[in-house]
Structures are given as structure tokens and as C-alpha cells.
Specification:
The chain is α/β, with parallel strands linked by helices and 164 residues long. Helices cover 32% and strands 19% of the residues. The strands form three sheets. The chain has a four-stranded parallel sheet with strand order 2-1-5-8, sandwiched between helices. It has a two-stranded antiparallel sheet with strand order 3-4. The longest helix has 17 residues. The protein is globular. 43% of the residues are buried. Pfam families: 2-thiour_desulf.
């Protein structure tokens, strides 16, 4: 495999999520990539300076990461605090790390306002999901990095087996 795979730290068992938990995924391909040194781990929120635990955050008004990056939407914590700038900083750090390690693919936790790639929450803190991407997933895609959710490891594995 040329290049590496950027991966959400929580998927590798690191307790970095907003509530101090991990979202550990076990999959033979993921374990193989880890053994081979192909994974580059990051938590965009921690990289941006958030602590664990931290208040949950969602992209407001049913918007998504692309809208945040174009300054048309904000990321708001359940407390009401606007944390948009930190989410953008985390996304930029993830992109820089991906470029540094020649990551052409990313495996990110779905649902997160940073890492969600298929769905995110709608900003009402009511548990409602909608199709969309988080800030980091959107920025990576804007720069040509293919993003997969943790439920798409088989699809990522199939994609890696094809020539670029």
C-alpha cells in the first residue's frame, strides 16, 4: 500500500471522545494495517486543544462541515459556546498530518461534528441525525483524501486493493 491511512484515535481504543470514551473497532483489516504501521492516528478535537471530557458539540441548524468551512455555519456546544474556530483548527491539523504521511485515505468515526462522513447530528442536541460530513471529513475530501466511516472498512479494504 502506498501512503498511509489517517484514522480517528477513538477507533483505535483511545478514550478521547467528548464523554471520555473510545469507540474501539475490531476488524481483521484494521488490525493488519496497524501491525504493518499503515495507520496514522489523530483526534482533531484534542489536537485543537479540547479536553476530555468536554461538552458535546453539533453543527448548528442542520448544516454540515462544508458550510462551516465556507463560514456559513457554526459548531456549537450543548452549553451554547461557539467552538467553530477550534473545529476548523483541528481539521487543518488533521489535513497537515495526512499530507505529512501521504495519507490518501481516512477512516473516521461517523456522527462526529469533526469526523462524521456519512451522517452527523442536526444541531438540536435531540439525537437526530442527517446526511452530512463533519468539519475534518469535509476538509479532507476537499483536498482529495477519500474518507470512509468505521462501518465501511470492507469498502476501504476493497478500494485499497485497486490501483490508484
Amino acid at each position: 500500500m502506498s501512503g498511509k491511512i489517517l484514522v480517528s484515535a477513538c477507533l483505535l481504543g483511545r478514550p478521547v471522545r467528548y464523554n471520555g470514551s473510545a469507540k474501539t473497532v475490531t476488524h481483521p483489516a484494521l488490525e493488519q494495517w496497524q501491525r504493518e504501521g499503515q495507520l496514522v492516528s489523530i483526534c482533531p478535537e484534542l489536537t485543537a486543544g479540547f479536553s476530555v471530557p468536554r461538552p458535546p458539540a453539533e453543527i448548528a441548524a442542520g448544516q454540515s462541515g462544508d458550510a462551516v468551512l465556507s463560514d456559513a455555519a457554526r459548531v456549537i456546544e450543548a452549553t451554547g459556546a461557539d467552538v467553530t474556530d477550534l473545529y476548523i483548527a483541528g481539521a487543518r491539523a488533521a489535513l497537515a498530518l495526512a499530507r505529512e504521511h501521504d495519507c490518501r485515505f481516512a477512516l473516521l468515526i461517523d456522527g462526529s461534528p469533526s469526523c462524521g462522513s456519512g451522517f452527523i447530528y442536526d444541531g438540536a442536541f435531540a439525537g437526530r441525525k442527517h446526511v452530512g460530513a463533519g468539519v475534518t471529513a469535509a476538509l479532507l475530501r476537499q483536498h482529495g483524501i477519500e474518507v470512509f466511516a468505521e462501518t465501511e472498512i470492507d469498502a476501504l479494504q476493497a478500494r485499497l486493493s485497486r490501483k490508484p
